[in-house]
Amino acid sequence: MDGEHPARPVTWVGSSRTDLKRFPQPVCRDVGKALYSTGKGRLEMAKKSTTIAHEKSSGNVFADLGLAHPEQELVKARLTLQIYRIIKARRVTQTQAGEILGIRQPQVSLLMRNRSGNFSVERLMDFLTALGHDVEVRVTPTRKEHGQLSVVVAA
Question: Which CATH number among 3.40.980.10, 3.30.70.1560, 1.10.260.40, 1.10.10.10 corresponds to the domain 11-130?
Fold first, then answer.
């Protein structure tokens, strides 16, 4: 990805992944977004002299947690992160951001806490254009059976 470090995979320690998957989907989604946004999906453990059973991530924490539509969740997390960065860089209040985006302040508050909620990918892209950024959707052929979704942030 241009201008941004790629997401680093999560290392699931012990039964952490299995344990987390037992929670309701909304909890898994919130934890997935938190893991993605803090260090872009990396969870580090202090090094110990004993060996701990662990499992490498697939590269998509939402897929690891068994959420429906994990690629879409990852795209939403990336778009929401960009919205957050733009609003922070502009140093506007949440009320002012809401006026720009055409939503109420409580919804901006949710976005600022990486909770894209019921906003679709299209709506999040609309927010980025309202914030003065171009959003480009590019369709390219793939050699795989199914294509993939991704967000590329220009520097």
Answer: 1.10.260.40
70-75: long-range contacts at Cβ-Cβ below 8 A with a sequence spacing of 24 or more?
71/148, 71/149, 72/121, 72/149, 73/29, 73/32, 73/33, 74/7, 74/36, 74/149, 75/121, 75/149, 75/150, 75/151
Looking at residue 42, its pLDDT comes to 39
Cβ pair 44, 88 in contact under 8 A: no
Give the C-alpha separation, 106 to 74, whole Å. 23
- Report pLDDT for 40: 53
Q: In which residue are the tokens 């919804």 written?
A: 107
What average pLDDT does the structure give for the chain?
Answer: 82
Domain ranges in the chain are 11-130
Which one, of 77, 71, 76, lies nearest residue 147 by Cα? 71
CA-angle at 150, arms to 148 and 154, nearest 5°: 150
Stretch 50-70: mean pLDDT: 82
pLDDT in tens, 74-115: 889 889 999 999 999 999 999 999 999 999 999 999 999 888
